[in-house]
Amino acid sequence: MPVNRYDAIVIGGGHNGLVAAAYLAKYGKKTVVLEARHKTGGAADTSQPWPEAPEFKVTTLSYTMSLMPAEIVNDLRLREHGYKINPLGMGYLPHPDGRSIIDSGTNAATYASYGQYSKKDGERIGPYYEWIGRIAAIMHPMLDETPPHIGSMKPGDLMDAGKLLWKLKKRGLADERTVGDITRLFTMSCADLLDRWFESDVVKGMLSINGIIGTWAGPFAPGTAYVLMHHSTGQETEGQVASWGMPEGGMGAVSDAIRRSAEAFGATVRVSSPVERILVKDGKATGVVVKGGEELHAPLIVTTCHPQITFLRQLDRKDLPADFVHDLEQWRSRSGTVKINLALAELPQFKADPGFNPDVHGGAISILDDIHYLETAFQEARSGKAATLPFADCEIPTVFDKTLAPEGKHIMSMFTQWVPESWSKEPKRAELEAYADRLIARFNDVAPNFRGSILHRQIIGPWAMEHEYHLIGGNIFHGELTVDQLFHMRPAIGYADYRSPIRGLYQASSATHAGGGVNGLPAHHAVRQMRRDGAL
């Protein structure tokens, strides 16, 4: 076989591209991965952003693990290649009023912590977790399904839809109340859903985080209840639904483990190799052109790029159906998130909980006042102004992982919201610095040693996410998780089954079903579809 001819070409060396390559190589296909950046991993990256302090390593964009099923971990032998996950605590909210919520799971201490703000809410948090867990357990298998062609009257498509309904029925979707509960999750806002359970705005703010994280929507927007449930269907390698973890070595260690797996199976990985054009002949993909003019040929191509990059830039639109092009032109990929990475001289000392506590420092630390704080921050960004008081979801992986910082020092990941979604069009460096200053001041209100402990900081806004990491709009999910962009609509009507209008070209980006989070499911499902199609 000539050097530039392969059985399969994978476009994009993020975690999904590497998972696809590993499976293809495992099935005996001569496979090459083409990554535009100088390194693989994409948003699942560990970096050393401060040349003057290379001893600090940060989880650059993505910062937690969930959703990756044991099947992928085991199939690709990721543990043999360095994949290790440390536990992440459930959540901590240090409130400016001097109190705090420590969520350590379904136990009396957690219920009492929520009960500080409302006796009723303390009593209801257990039943609420039981309810959302039950719905998540029903919906979790949906992540493993290839979306059927809902609305198609073809016999095979009707049969696929019927099989899916039967599977859901066996999982517990067998009564009208459960169907109603799921309908509410797809259509309601976090605020309206949580109003059915709780009375304290502080409690509702804490519990709405999963509904707005990484999302261009505030907690009062319809559909955010689904996003909340989506982040409750996760399953880390120990098989616990809605469990989360921090990778040893940062998120880049996950990508590195997958890359080592792919190379061990025989795949070739090339960096600094941006694909400029996908070659098509008679409606079939035949290869790609890399920047500089080099051509590589293969009968199978898998793209893991944002769909607007693949279908609106790398292909000639005349080769695509007009309605498909229209769907992709209308694909919404707004964001408004800002990632802030910090090197710290010491751990934060919280007024409400002085001293070290693994449930505090080893969990997700939430910076917010209540649900209205979150809504105000979003509405400010929506009106074109960065949040006066930003929200942040913070983690300190060095509580467990000593590979990322010198002894006694720490790094912190702050996933923050919101700035205007238009900031993906300009760097806005001065404004981002001011935004970070406001957030750090707000954190310092609940942990007075915090500001003085900061040794270095890195601020990554939507423009950098788009131009350096190819996340259009800065959206970490490659497209918003709204009801009209989910399941059989993701990323276009009629093409949610990982195929594309071009024969031999499959799609496996986070914009396909099960995408959103570092899970590898889109890649796994795309390769599964190739096998079903007889392409492997």
Highlighted features:
seven-stranded mixed beta sheet; 35% helix; FAD/NAD(P)-binding domain; 536 residues; 16% strand
CATH topology name of the domain at 8-42 and 71-84 and 250-331 and 475-532, in short, is FAD/NAD(P)-binding domain
Give the averaged pLDDT, no decimals.
Answer: 92
- Looking at the overall shape, the CATH architecture of the domain at 8-42 and 71-84 and 250-331 and 475-532 is 3-Layer(bba) Sandwich
The class by helix and strand makeup works out as: alpha/beta
- Oligomerization state: single chain
Question: Major sheet: size, sense and barrel closure?
Answer: 7 strands, mixed
Q: Detail the poorly predicted runs.
A: 235-242
Instruction: Evaluate the radius of gyration.
Output: 23 Å
Strand content: 15-25%
Superfamily (CATH H level) name of the domain at 8-42 and 71-84 and 250-331 and 475-532: FAD/NAD(P)-binding domain
- In angstroms, what separates the terminal alpha carbons? 17 Å
Shape assignment = globular
Number of helices: 19
